[in-house]
Specification:
103 residues; mainly alpha; 81% helix; elongated
Length: 103
Amino acid sequence: MRNYDYGSYEGHNVRKWTHQIERQSKNLRNLVKEGDDLPEWINKKVVLATDYLTSAANYMANRAAVGVKGVKKMVGMNKKSQKRHSSKRSRSSKRRHTRKMRK
């Protein structure tokens, strides 16, 4: 078992959900014909799901390439950079909110 040091073991759940995604994807593909005129929201949902799955797969592929030891180092760097930049983000978001309120 690989531990990417994120606090809990989510591998079982991800595998279960991706299995369901795979089944539903095949089902939808069989229901839709090439020339069908579908509601726009269906296309948006499929595009969004594709984007999310691609992002997750790319993230895991990169982490697997780096290895567990490299991931632990990267996680530590991310936490440090988040702390460093969090005060900047909160100030800028306060400014944006204030500007919106003035208008």
